[in-house]
């Protein structure tokens, strides 16, 4: 498989007052096209930071990230936002849906950044909702849906512009076991049948089993093995 994401000597430093805190140190990682990677590690180890860098939500302090041959660390704010809109879908722990909008309208949102007509936006959102098994809930607002259903709407929103990469930050962190399994099964289907490359942060070893392999972060460094007492249960 070709390499989709190439990360070289990546570092991220945050300034806390006058103090500088290096949250990621010299991360080197290649992620193949079509991979489903789980990223685990203790709270505060830098998982969200790394995921946000991979998805272009944040920029590194040093090192490089290329995705599909494009150096995203060298893109400015506007260009980076444009790159994100067509290349990455985001799934968060708390869904981040707009409460006043129907599922259909929530899924259409990323398409407002494209040149698609309103009719085409409606059609693509309906297809995405169908893919996540929620065609019959298109008119419901988030508050009228279960947590698992809301996360499936968020997944429909993440895939509606047909990005090659999905980044998911604890997508099942707030779900009961059955809803979590539904969401993980859906992610696996998007990976296997639709060729999406997925990077998923999780604290749950059972969730990581859905991925093709797992990497562990500890104090901002990628480590080979899980630590004996690392992470939350
Ligand atoms: N904007 C920021 N400013 C300063 N420090 C930050 C910022 N964002 C994250 N950090 C720090 O970076 C470290 C890593 O945070 P990160 O959110 O990546 O951890 P995480 O592995 O995702 O943890 P969790 O499992 O709790 O979500 C933490 O020490 C955190 O306090
Ligand atoms: Mg996190």
UniProtKB/TrEMBL annotation:
**Pfam families found in the cross-reference section:** ABC_tran
> SMART domains in the record, alphabetically?
AAA (SM00382)
Question: What is the similarity comment for this entry?
Answer: Belongs to the ABC transporter superfamily. Macrolide exporter (TC 3.A.1.122) family.
Keyword ATP-binding (UniProt)? yes
Q: Name one GO molecular function term.
A: ATP hydrolysis activity
Keyword presence, Repeat: no
Task: Extract the InterPro entries matched here.
Answer: AAA+_ATPase, ABC_transporter-like_ATP-bd, ABC_transporter-like_CS, ABC_transpr_LolD-like, MacB-like_ATP-bd, P-loop_NTPase
What superkingdom heads the lineage?
Bacteria
List, alphabetically, the CDD domains matched: ABC_MJ0796_LolCDE_FtsE
Q: Which GO terms describe its cellular component?
A: plasma membrane; transmembrane transporter complex
The name this protein goes by in its record:
ABC transporter ATP-binding protein
Q: Where is the ABC transporter domain?
A: 5-232
> Which keywords does the record carry?
ATP-binding, Nucleotide-binding, Transport
């Amino acid at each position: 498989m070709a390499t989709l994401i190439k990360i070289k000597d990546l570092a991220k430093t945050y300034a806390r007052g006058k103090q500088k805190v290096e949250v990621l140190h010299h991360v080197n990682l290649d992620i193949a096209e079509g991979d489903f990677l789980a990223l685990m590690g203790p709270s505060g180890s830098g998982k969200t930071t790394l995921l946000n860098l991979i998805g272009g939500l944040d920029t590194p302090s040093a090192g490089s990230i290329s995705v599909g041959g494009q150096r995203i660390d060298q893109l400015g704010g506007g260009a980076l936002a444009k790159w994100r809109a067509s290349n990455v879908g985001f799934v968060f722990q708390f869904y981040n849906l707009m409460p006043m909008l129907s599922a259909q309208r929530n899924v259409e949102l990323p398409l407002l950044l494209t040149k698609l007509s309103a009719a085409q936006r409606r059609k693509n959102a309906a297809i995405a909702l169908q893919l996540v098994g929620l065609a019959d809930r298109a008119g419901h607002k988030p508050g009228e849906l279960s947590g698992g259903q809301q996360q499936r709407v968020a997944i429909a929103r993440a895939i509606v512009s047909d990005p090659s990469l999905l980044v998911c930050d604890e997508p099942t962190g707030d779900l009961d076991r059955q809803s979590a399994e539904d969401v993980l099964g859906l992610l696996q289907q998007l990976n296997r049948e639709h060729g999406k490359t997925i990077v998923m942060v999780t604290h749950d070893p059972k969730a990581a089993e859905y991925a093709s392999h797992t990497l562990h972060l500890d104090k901002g460094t990628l480590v080979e093995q899980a630590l004996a007492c690392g992470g939350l249960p």
